[in-house]
Structures are given as structure tokens and as C-alpha cells.
Amino acid sequence: MKYPHCANCRDEVEWYVLAGNTGLVIFKGSLGVMSGSAALIADTFHSFADVLATIVTLFSLKVSARAPDQAHAYGYGKIQHISSGVIGLLLLGGSMFILTGSVMDVWRGSYAAPKSVALLGAFFAILANEFMFRYERCVAHENNSPAIMANAWDNRSDALSSLGVLIGLFFATFLGFPIADPITAILIALVVIKIAVELIVGAINNLMDATPEFVKSSDLFKIIRKLPSVTGVNFLRARSLGEDFYVEAEIRVDKRLKVYEGDLIVATLEELIKERLDHIGSIQIYLAPEGEQSW
Q1: How many C-alpha atoms does 16 have within 13 Å on its Cβ side?
Q2: Fewer C-beta neighbours within 10 Å, C or N terminus of the chain?
Q3: What angle in degrees, to the nearest 10, is found between the helix axes of 38-64 and 118-143?
Q4: For 260-278, how does the pLDDT look when each residue is reduced to its tens digit (9 = 90+)?
């Protein structure tokens, strides 16, 4: 972590975001009804999905903080990936609802220019959501939290959708193109669908123990092979357990090494890996005598 207080931010950030998103739902919803803007009402629905997503994130952070036990030897961290997938599904369902309704409005021609007060709701929503995104992204990065990062991108998608609403409302209210309102809602829905699919795919990959980037890029291999006592590497594995990674490796060493020398190699490697790679939790290193087949 960059600063000591980053751990405290992890426990506080979602409460601030929950309050912010709830305020946006009330603010944008009121202006959307007053102005008759389909795009702003659709954007309000997106913010309501953010509220639900934040509640899911708060729950997952609380559960993932539990220590490992007999029933869950690797801890509860993977619930953060489940949370990320749930947020993606909430976004996907809401955006499909918006997309269908807006397409039907365009098809039937049932649209009218909204009142200009809707522009105020869209402008304020852009500022609020971009601020929440940057705050959450910082906290998620420093704590390696997939749940907080998913919620951060949820707010970024809301900021983008509000920007689209602002542009669409300008065309609808000042340039005399009322169809811009439902078309904007359609474009918002498509952007949110893309973000939702990415979140769902990422959650599925991590739940299926996809190989982390530091293993793919050989960073872990390079750290291990720099130790003079290591003559080779039989296998390297790692998987995400939420905010931390679990690492397994089998390395080849001189078969004439004494037990305490092997223990020293393992301890040194564990220290090097945690020093040079971020968010490493548990490490399991096995020693295989050089010239003998790996178990």
C-alpha cells in the first residue's frame, strides 16, 4: 500500500459511495420526472443499480475479511469475485431493460423534447460519479480488491452515461431534435452492457482460477531463478483469493542440501516474492532434488 491509511479507506469507501449514489437517485429521479426526460430516468435507474451494487460490495467485503477456518481453508476472499459478477448481472439486467424501452419509444415515435432542467441533473451526475470512480479506483488498487474495483467501474459507467445524457438533452432541448433523448438512452444502455459483460467475464475467470498476470509475464519465474541455490523450476501456479494471491511453486535444488539449507531457501524465496510482488498472501514452495522426477 502507498499510504498507511489505505487500509482504513477500504472499510470506509463504500459507505461514502452508498450515500453519494442514493443522493443521485433522488436528485436525478426528481429532475427526470419533472423534465420528462427518458434518458435521465434511464440514468437514474443506472444509479439505482449502483446503490444495489454498493450494498452487495459492502456485504462481500465484510465476509471476505473473515479468517480461514476448517470449512474454508483458503479463506472467504473469492466472495469478492462473486460480488463483481453480481454487480455485472445487475448492470446487464438494468441496461437491457433500458435498451428495450428506448428502442420501443423510437419505433412507436412516442417521444417529446424534455425540459431543460434535466441538463442540471446530468451535469451534476457527471461530476459526482467521476469523483466516486477516482476515489474507489485508488482504494481498490491499493488494496487489490476486485469488488471495490468493480464498483468503481460501475460509477465510471454512470459518469459516461450521464455525459451521454447531457449531450442528448442538449440536442433534444436546444437544437430541436427530441428523438435524441431516447437515442441517447439506447447508447447509454449499450455502453453499460459492454461494462457489465467485462465484469461478468472477469469474475468467471477468477472463480475458475485463471492464471494471474505476474505468472503469465514470468515475473514470478524470474524472481525464483535469480536465487543461486535454485537449479530449475518444475511448476509455478497462482490464483486469486479475492484481495490476495495464493502462490505454489516446485523448484529443483541440489539433492545434497541439508534440511536446514532447504528451509533457508524456502524462507528466502517467500521473502523475495512478497517484497517484489504486490498482494501476495499464502505461498507454498516445494523442493525437488535435482535429477529426480517431480512428484
Answers
A1: 18
A2: C
A3: 20
A4: 888 898 898 888 888 888 7
**For the residues 167-189, what does the mean pLDDT come to?**
81
Domains of the chain: 6-207 (1.20.1510.10), 213-289 (3.30.70.1350)
Confidence class for position 280, pLDDT limits 50, 70, 90: confident
pTM passes above 0.85: no
